[in-house]
Amino acid sequence: MFLKEIRLIQNDRYALLLIFVLPAMIMGTMWLALEQRSLTPPPNSEGKSEDALIVGLVDDDPTDTYPDQDLSENFTWYLQNSPNFIITLYDTEEEALIALYQDIVNAYAVIPYGFEGNITGDIPAFVEVHISSTDFDSQAAVFSAFNDVVIQFRIDHGWISHEVRMNQVREWEPTGNYFAATFGVFLLVFSIFIATSATAAQAIVGDVPLSRMLLTPATKMEAIIAKVTGYFIVGMIQAQFILVLWMGLFGIVPNTDYLTLNIVLALMSFSGSSLGVFISTIVTTRLQANQSFLFLLFSSFIVGTGFMEVGIIDEYWPLNLGRVMIFDTAFKGVDIMIFSTEIARILAVSIGMMIFAWMVFSKRKSLA
């Protein structure tokens, strides 16, 4: 019996391929990420690093109490000469906030009224650094680089008593547990997309009743539509369950309405269902369907989490588009209609997978 199973696996070329593709993808991704980091170009002729952050700056301090220097202008000079920052000056904090909302800047800092007066009077001067609560990649980099500037500013002036301190402000943070809000909002789209894909991956392969049904006037396209619709409904039921748990257990109050969240999750459910049915048409065994789901799961972790640039995949893959949509709607309160292009792409990719599934299914002679 053991030898029989080995022969079955040996004859299953698709399964053998995935056995080697999955480790190669994981190790290849790690190698690519390390190569991207090691190949980062050195600072350019202006002294700015290739990954310098664009930071807005508002100088609200007109005080002149420090001898021989305007400390707010001097601190601005330190920020402008940091290799990690490209500084854009704004007249008002409202202008800087709009720039942050529109992703023109990665963050903005406000030098408050009394900055120079506080330092002169040996009182800590707090500089507020505002960053979007959805910009997880830049948060640590901004705060670390800003702290380096503060340290250099203090060292050059011979100060050691924390005369300048940084106050971190996360904009558009939903009410409730911040970690649960930020990590959970990604899990919403990821779990719905993956769960519907996983359940639909075995929708057709080995479906004996479907084989008998196709002996009736029912067409294979009708079978594809029925499968996708059925698993889409299952995905939406799951979406309500996970939304209620996310909002109820952690006290999350998103900065958008419940309908908007459901529209994004409906797109994930539809695209996941379409992908799962497509997988179910190209595989010939349930083992292949399970392995295909594992391949989908690991590849989604790699290309869908946003921790590395994946080029055109970010522009068209439903999970990546859904990740951006859920963050901007749930946190920034962006109107869902702003994403009309992204919605059209998700629908186009999903319908395209249904058409490809029908084309493959039409040539199948059996389902097992």
Structure characterization notes:
By secondary structure, this protein is an alpha/beta fold. The chain folds into two domains: 53-171, abc type-2 transporter like fold (3-Layer(aba) Sandwich); 176-362, no CATH class. It is 62% helix and 9% strand. It has a five-stranded mixed β-sheet with strand order 2-1-3-4-5, sandwiched between helices. α10 (258-282) packs antiparallel against α13 and α10 runs parallel beside α14. The chain is elongated.
Set out the fold topology.
Blueprint: H1 2-11, H2 13-38, E1 53-59, H3 71-80, E2 85-90, H4 93-101, E3 107-111, H5 115-120, E4 125-132, H6 136-157, E5 164-171, H7 178-200, H8 208-213, H9 220-250, H10 258-282, H11 286-304, H12 313-316, H13 318-330, H14 340-362
Parallel strand pairs: 1-2, 1-3, 4-5
Antiparallel strand pairs: 3-4
Helix pairs in contact: 2-11, 7-9, 7-10, 7-11, 7-13, 9-10, 9-14, 10-13, 10-14, 13-14
The tally of helices reads: 14
Describe the strand arrangement of the main beta sheet, using strand numbers: 2-1-3-4-5
From the alpha-carbon coordinates, what is the Rg to the nearest angstrom?
27 Å
What is the 3D form?
elongated
N- and C-termini, Cα separation? 21 Å
Helix/strand structural class: alpha/beta
Q: What's the β-strand tally?
A: 5
What is the H/E order? HHEHEHEHEHEHHHHHHHH
Strand content: 5-15%
Helix content: 55-70%
The poorly predicted ranges are none
Largest pleated sheet? 5 strands, mixed
- Whole-number mean pLDDT: 82
Number of domains: 2
Q: Brief overview, please?
A:
Helix content is 62%, strand content 9%. It contains 14 helices and 5 strands.
